Amino acid sequence: MSKALEGVRILDFTHVQSGPTCTQLLAWFGADVIKVERAGEGDATRAQLRDIPGVDSLYFTMLNHNKRSITLNAKHPAGKEVLETLIRDCDVLVENFAPGALDRMGFGWERIQELNPRMIVASVKGFGPGPYEHCKVYENVAQCTGGAASTTGFEDGPPVVTGAQIGDSGSGLHLALGIVTALYQRQVTGRGQRVLTAMQDAVLNLCRVKLRDQQRLERNGVMEEYPQYPEGTFGDAVPRAGNASGGGQPGWILKCKGWEDDPNAYIYFITQAAVWPAICKVIGREEWITDPDYATPRARLPRLMQVFATIEEWTREHTKFEVMDILNQYDIPCGPILSMKEIAEEPSLRATGTIVEVDHPERGPYLTVGNPIKLSDSPTEVRRSPLLGEHTEEVLGQLGYSSEQIAALRSVHAI
Ligand code: COA
């Protein structure tokens, strides 16, 4: 079966996580992604957090599936010529270098336009134009500057960063959408364009409910679904809300049977208004269905923590999976806290290709996350990440370089 992005060629100048997430998605949709790396070194993540000495790390392999790798010294005159050929040949250049690095290489937007006016140049940067535009940025910097850290954690603790890589992988996702949108527009205009995703913007986009709450707070002085209500105090900025729900249906994380020994024996419990009578029956509090102190969402708001403490008396008697089974019989929304071990071993996630086992010539089999976006007419086959420079000869050969020319480039360390 053909792939959605078949025929699209990507010059992948990305490294670390944000850019590679984006180009891996494009590769999964069928684009030919040529990853350009420095000879001898490659993407720094090949050597970071290694679990097997001398073998590409899981950090690298899990972000670079379905790509081809070539080595190239973009600062060597002969390497620059190869890069020019690649720019003429490709549809999209994706990069996430530090600000200005591409210009310093001699490949600013104007030069790329001269070489290929149809080329789309897509970049991840830490910040958009403004006071911080020249800064280098990693994941947690973006989480802190995009509003995630100040709104995550508990009121009596410091700001907390999340395990979800919303700065890096979140930016990569945003950039991928920008690229396919620009490819779509190019069909009409015939022109390329620049696509920019600032990591701060991507994190803020994912934190928009907190900007919503900032304005609610400024208008009303309190937010009734926050744990600070009614006894605590609100300052002038959105506080950390612990495990409170970000939506209109109150929720909290509750202990389940075995919590004393298992750090993940918990469940997220949502007291959705529509199923309140069912909740009361399940936990043995049928009187709450009609009690004016509990019968309506508004009446429950000032005593939410007490409501959750009572529900927890019931959840503590059951495992998180028993709770899930029982609550789902009544359409009560809930979610067991799954550990990474449980996720890795979950057969249904393997069946859907959400978790995939991949074989690698140097490390052997390993698990990775498959394509989370499933297209019915463009199924994803996850192929292992390339070794450093594995496809240099193949790609240069396709670009018209003879084996003598490739040998000459190698002898001067241009590739
Ligand atoms: N040939 C020659 N030079 C190359 C090259 C190649 N194939 N590939 C990279 N380089 C050079 C760059 O041109 C740059 O040189 P310069 O400093 O002389 O301009 C140099 O390598 C280092 O690149 P840089 O991007 O500055 O890497 P870094 O390791 O110092 O910084 C980041 C890493 C991630 C902090 C930085 O790239 C960044 O802020 N990127 C944007 C935001 C981002 O994506 N962050 C998330 C990463 S997950």
Overall geometry comes to elongated
- What does the average pLDDT come to? 97
Q: C-alpha Rg, in Å? A: 26 Å
Secondary-structure class: alpha/beta
Strand order, sheet with most strands: 3-2-1-4-5-6
Q: Could you explain the architecture of this structure?
A:
The structure is a single chain. The mean pLDDT is 97. Helix content is 36%, strand content 13%. It has helices at 18-28, 58-61, 77-89, 101-104, 109-115, 139-145, 168-189, 199-206, 208-220, 276-282, 297-300, 304-315, 320-329, 340-345, 347-351, 392-398, 403-411; strands at residues 9-13, 32-37, 67-71, 92-95, 120-125, 194-198, 251-255, 266-270, 334-336, 355-358, 366-369. It is built from 17 helices and 11 strands. α1 (18-28) crosses α7, α6 (139-145) packs across α8 and α7 (168-189) packs across α8. Coenzyme A binds at residues 16-19, 36, 38, 72-75, 96-98, 101, 104-105, 124-126, 136-138, 168.
List keywords for this structure.
415 residues, alpha/beta, six-stranded parallel β-sheet, 11 strands, 13% strand, elongated, binds coenzyme A
